[in-house]
Amino acid sequence: MTAAFHARYARPSPKSPAPRLPPTSSPALQPSLHARTPISKPQTADAGTQYTPEGYPPTANTLAGSKRRGSSPPAPSMTPRPETNLPERPVHSATPDMSAQGVVAASQNASPSLSKKPRTQPDPNVKIMPLKYETCDPKDLGYLISNMLMELIRLNDKLPLNGRLTRFHSRAPPGISCHDYLQRLIQHATLSPPILLSIVYYIDRLCSLYPSFTISSLTVHRFLITAATVAAKGLSDSFWTNPTYARIGGISVSELATLEMEFLEKVQWRIVPKPEVLVDYYVSLVQRNEGYQLEAATESDPT
């Protein structure tokens, strides 16, 4: 055993030939009994069938599926959803032909990309006024009143005077327009909406009780400063003094006092109108101007 050990594991000398090891047979590799499972590519659905809006056919958008290779698996067929009776959305429009049935029929005849229901948008050229005149902008209300005054001036300037002059008549029309003069009073005399509507009320009352008075280019300016002074004193808890109103109106203090007394006598000292009267004047002013419109009433607002 010792000789065999040394003969097998001894270090060979340079003179002795290298020992040869007997060849050993390596065990043969046996094939695996388990069959290899083929790697399958993930199934991807067509991009056009990922989302289908209601009312569109399943094949409404097939651009993504047409770019795929021909060896890709076909897209799974999708069964159309059963149609459900959804409530129709009301279409707010002033024209009678824009009803709910008309919009639905038009959308069915149009192409799928243009079959959305049109949305009604408010006219940007129309100014929406609040339902309550107390919350409206005095400048907007002054614009409505000045338009009404200009209509009266155009009509009454055509009539002859026939010698019927009042304290409100001037020798010549002032250089400032009716609109600019009223806006000046609103800004510097801080006229509120009730005061402005009371001025309109005074026009009807003064014309009915004082036949010689008419709104014209000769009387409108003196009437406005006088009516604004009387209405502010009768309706407001705080108001300016006569020198302030006279300076804003461009007349003297004595002339304003004379016009104020003349005005109170002609209207019989009844200068406080009823609230419902002011509401009627406000609605009438808004309705007669095409560029203005009252806002829609809600359920909480009284009708």
TrEMBL record:
Residue numbers spanned by region Disordered: 1-127
Bias (Polar residues): 40-52
One MF annotation (Gene Ontology) recorded for this entry: protein kinase binding
InterPro entries hit by this protein: Cyclin-like_sf, Cyclin_PHO80-like
Range of residues in the leader sequence: none
Gene3D superfamilies: Cyclin-like
GO CC terms, sorted: cyclin-dependent protein kinase holoenzyme complex; nucleus
Bias kind Pro residues: ranges: 14-25
Membrane spanning residue stretches: none
Pfam family of the protein (one): Cyclin
Top-rank taxon, per record: Eukaryota
Family annotation (PANTHER family): PHO85 CYCLIN PHO80 (PTHR15615:SF117), PTHR15615
Protein name, as recorded: Cyclin-domain-containing protein
Species, as recorded: Aureobasidium pullulans (Black yeast)
Highest classification ranks of the organism: Eukaryota, Fungi, Dikarya, Ascomycota, Pezizomycotina
